[in-house]
Each structure stands twice: as C-alpha cells, then as structure tokens.
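Page 42, continued from yesterday. The earlier attempt failed because a stray header line got pasted into the input along with the sequence. Redoing it now with the clean sequence only.
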Amino acid sequence: MLAVSIVVPAIRAIASGWRPLGDNALLLIRVVDVGTEHNPQLGSWSSSSLAAGRAVHNPGPIYFDLVALPVKLFGPWVGVAIGVTIINLAAVLLAVAAARRIAGTTGQLMIALVCAGLAWTMGSELLFDIWQPNALVLPAMAFLVTAWGLAAGGLWFAPFVVGLASVLVQTHLSYLYVVALVAAWAVVSALLGLRRQDGDRPLVALPVAVSLVTIVLLWAQPLYQQFFGPGPGNLSALLNAANGQDPGNGLSVSLRVVSSVVALPPWWSRSSYGLGPPALPGTLVAVLSLSVVFGALGAVAWRARRRQRAWLASMAGVAVAALAASIVSLALTPSPLGLLPHQWRYLWPLAAMVAATLVTGVAAELMEKWGDRPAIRRRLAVAATLVVVGLAVANLPIHASRTGPTADRQAGTSARALLQQLDATEQRGTVLFDASTQLFSDPFGPLVLAGLQDRGVEFVVESAIEVEQYGRSREFEPADRTVTTRIWTRAGRGAAQRTDGVVLAAVDGLEPAERGEMETLEALLGGSLRRSGLSLSERGRARHADGEFPADPARLTRGQDVMPTLRLVSWIVSEELVEVDESIADDLDRLIELWILEARFSVALYAAPVDQRPDD
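This time it went through. Structure tokens are written below.
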C-alpha cells in the first residue's frame, strides 16, 4: 500500500495533463539535455552563488541522468513524473529492505512506518516533484538506513551508502556536511566492529572495491569538468566559495531550527513542511529540547549495548551522528535568501530516523518486559502495519504543499493553454529568450522554453544567471546572425496589451465568469471606498511612523480613487494594516483573491527582432 500511495499521485497527474512549472520546468530542460550537445556535466546553478559572489553549481548531474531514461522513453511531460516517482519508490523499497536485513521484521515495519509518515508529510503532489529539496527527502531516508546497515557491520551496504551520498551531495549542496559526517561515522563504526570480531572476518576487499568503482563512475563527469571542461572548474569554485563565504547562521540559529523540526511540535508532520520560515523557539528551549532528544538516544544506545542489541545501538549511533551533523551544517552554512526550509530539508528524514530509533528502543524494552511472546509481537506488527496502511491511504487525496514550484499549482490551466499556442515559434529558428521581464519564481518562462525544446526549437540566453542555469552551450553570441528573434514573457494584468513586441501566445488567468465577477466587485467596491476611504489600523499607523507603510495614506482617504493603490498593495488588507468595514470585508477579500489570480496566472509571450529589447 505504501508503494501504491507513491505511484497513484503520478498517474493521476499524468492523466490530468500536469505540466512542470518554474524551476521544475528548468530542471526538466536539463534532464532532456542529457546525452545531447547541451549535456550537463554539473548539477543546477546554486543559490550559494549569491553568498559566494561567483557562479557555482551543485556538484554533479546524477539526478538528471537518473530521470533521463524515463524522459527519453515517455517524453518530457510524462517521463519526468515517472522518473521522479521511480526514484522515490526505489528509495523507499531500499530503505525497507535494508531495515529488514539489519533488524528483521521489527526494523522493516519501523522504517516502513516512518517512510509512510514522510510521504504523508510531503503530500501527494510532491512525490513526483523534481525540485531538489523535495525530490531528495526519501532518498535521504534511504541513505540514513543504509548508513545504519554499514555501521552495524553490513559491509555490502557500503556501495549503497556511497551511491546515495553521491546523489544527495551532487544534487543539492545543503546535504554536504550531513552526508559526509554520517558516512564517516558509519565507516568508523564498521571498522571498529571488524576489529572486535573474533574468528573469520567477512570479506572486505570486494565491497570496498565496488564502492570505489561506484565513486569513480558517479563522479566522472564533475571531475572531467573540473580538469578538462570549459570555464573554471566547479569543484575548485565550490572550495574557494566555502573558504570565502559569508558567515554561517551560527550555533544559536542552528539549534533553534533543528529543534523546531526534531524536538518540538509540530515536529516533522505535514504542518511543518511549508514554504516560509517556521516559528523558531528561543535558544534556551532549543537547547533543553535537543538535550532531551540526545539523552533519549544515548539511553537507547546504552540499553541496547547492555542487552546485546548491536543493531539497535548502531541505529541510535547513526541518529546521534545525523543530529549532530545537522547542527554543524546549519551553523556553518550561510542563508543568503533568509532562513528558508528548502535549504535544510534533510531535517525531515533525519527527524524521522530519530523518531524510528526512539520508538524502536521503547518497543524493544516492552517486548523484553512482556517476555517477547509471539502473540504480542504479532499484535505489534499488525498495529504497525495498520498505521502504515492508514498513512498511505491518507496520502492518496490531492495535497499540494505550498513549497517550491508546486506553490503555483493553480497555474496548471494557464500552462497547458500557453503550451498549445507555441506553433508560431517553430518557423523562427533559434530564438533568444530574454528573462529581464520575468518576476521572481516566475512559473511560465522556463515552461515556455521546455515547450520550445519539446518542439525542437533551439534557444539561447544572454544574462549571466540564465547562462549558468540553462548551460553555457546556450550562451548568446551577438555575432551569431542566425539568431534573429528575441522572445520574452510578461505576467499580470494587461500582460497581452503591451506594444513592444508581437504577441505570439496569451492566456487570461481568470475564467470569463471570474473576470465578470471581478469587474462587478471593482465597480461596487470602488464607489463604496471612494465614499468611505480606508483608515490605517493601529498596526498600519505604527508601520507608517517607522516609514515602512508601502503607500501614501493620502491616496486611501475619502474622496480618492482607492482602487489603483489598493491593487498595488492589496496585502495591506490581509496584514490588517488598514481597517475594513465588516459590510464589505468578504467582498474585498474575494476581489483581492481575483486580483492575485489575474496577476499570477495571466501571461503572454512576445517576439521582436533580436536587437529590440522589451520596454521596462
């Protein structure tokens, strides 16, 4: 049932015509590039570039390579969902099978339970999402379980550990410290276990050799780019960036962030898996709560050693190592865009591993207290199985967490309509895509380029960031006279009404009925607000006194046409910076909702001669 809950969302999305938006479309483009003249030898451009002051990429393209085969077989739109789903399904099956190998049915059920919990936390629509912070959650869980297996003395887990470690680190730099420290702990634990063994020792050379070959194969492309590729080597750029980067978040912030996911409610549940920064506890609360968790893990390890449950002691050791590594990682890593959870998604599988360890420790103690009777063991197994099935069933309905490109899931209708209008681009040869008109986290620009790629239309880019994102082989050369057309997208109200280019495609973000409703509400509320105006609330007056109110309050007073100003800064209503009469509150909320839909999901694609830039 757990496998079904991972597969069903992708099937449903494919059947409904789902299309990747924003960064997901950008990542799809790089997947399609695998094996072509634009073949990526590195991972995607990293936001660490902002802190480093130079372009750096995530270290390698393994994830692109893994998804490439389904994309080649089934096409880009279907293949990307299938590819990500296969990776997540394989990660869960590997974690559960490895846990059974390490700790029998107890380990299998416990890891199945936390994997089901993680999948439910993410929600159905993120289980086929290629955006790295979401795509790596379940593979990270598999890494922790295989690291547990290696620490427990299973040497044949070593190739899986290095393989999964490579996938995580190459795909998203945020995993570097955690993966390195946990892997090191597992290796040291395995070596110490070998030294303590009496009699015949297991064959070491073969799993070590397979692990080394795995490392060489998976790191061949980044190493080739470092020493023989065009431009500066990425690995050395990452090293230089690390040496000269901004100060990290610091220990206090790190402890508060880690405790908010691992040690304090809502822990790693669905409500914690959001887009914005969480409400962080104070430093003292963070230290105390994490001390309790470390103490509990230490108690599990101590009891396991005393009761000769080496597998459980190893599980606790990996949990402690991962928890300590996460604190180190967050303390050392800068946050150039602010404290955003996508930079530390490793905390969710880590928290799941901690929870699995503690629950397993309690279960082991209860089994010993009750005499480890088969009937009780069966009842516990049935209970755990029912929880797994319950979580899997609960995750079947559509749930789209507002994190990453999935936050714009409502733009799916506009996306499909836009892609259907790209015929006019096919006769223009290679086109130059101008990203200067794009808004932050724009869902449509990369989608248009993915649509062009699917139609066999080549494109080039000219800004430095786009060159790094789409590949240096796509950098526009002004001397290239074969590129004669510049294209760009515009979003928002009046997106298709600009005169600086020819409109090739246009989509209204509102349905006709919604547009009629919006115009009616604008007329109704416009007159009402002209008569009454909007007064600043106490909070709004404080913001105005601090010079932080986003508009001139005089434009909101009685007798003024309030609507143009309110449209620009409509969020002052939701943040209660103005006082709204209860008689119009519901209508105003609905009008603002329609404004947002229009602004976010109305889009037009323009074209002009290559030397003609869009107006500001």
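Notes: Residues 2-39+61-218+246-401 form one domain.
Reminder to self: strip header lines before submitting.
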